[in-house]
Amino acid sequence: MNDFHKGSLEVVCGPMFSGKSEELIRRMKRVQISGKKFIIFKPALDNRYDANHVVSHDQRKLEAVITRTDTLAIKYIEDVVDKENPEVIAIDEGNFYAMEIVFMIEKWVSEGKRVLVAGLDTNFRGETFGPMGELLARADYVDKLKAICMKCKNREAVMTQRLINGLPAKRSDPTILVGGFDSYEARCRECHELLD
Ligand SMILES: [Zn+2]
Fold first, then answer.
1. Is 155 inside a domain boundary?
2. Residues, CB-to-ion distance under 5 Å, ligand 1
C-alpha cells in the first residue's frame, strides 16, 4: 500500500462579503498554532486597508507575501515556495491569478503540501472568475460561503453586484476596474442586476 498522501487542495469561495478572507485567516491561525511552516500569498491589486497583510473586514491579520498576478508572478511564487518549502500554502483572492497557478497548485499537492485558496467563484457578471472554476473542480474540499443580500436584506447572497457611480455595471464593463468609482455588494439572484 502506498504511503498516506497528505497533499490536499481546499477552496473557499463565494461572493464579496461572504467571509472568505476571515475563513482563510481562521484556518491559517490554526496552522500557525500547530507550528507548521506556512506562506500566504495575496495579489497586490487589492489595496484594501493594508498592503502588507491579509486583512479581513474584522481586522484579524496574518503576514502575507504580496505578488503580482500574471504568468511571470506565478514563476516568482514557485521560486518562493521552492526556497521556503512550507508545508501549507494559502492564496487569498485566488480569482485574480493567471491560470498557470492551477498547475503550480497541482504540483504542490502532489508533493504532499496542503494548499488553501480563497476567492470569488464568479465575477460581477456571474461568470467563472479566473482559475477558480478549475480549482473548484480539482479541490479535495470545497466551501461555498454565502453573504446576506445587501438589497433585500433577506435572502442568501451568492452573487457579487458591481456598482459604478451607484448604478449597476454593464455586461461590457471590464472585470477589474483600477481606480474607478466602483463599489460592490453581495446580492441574491433576484436582486442581482446587470445592464446590457
Ligand atoms: Zn436580495
1. no
2. 149, 151-152, 155, 188, 191
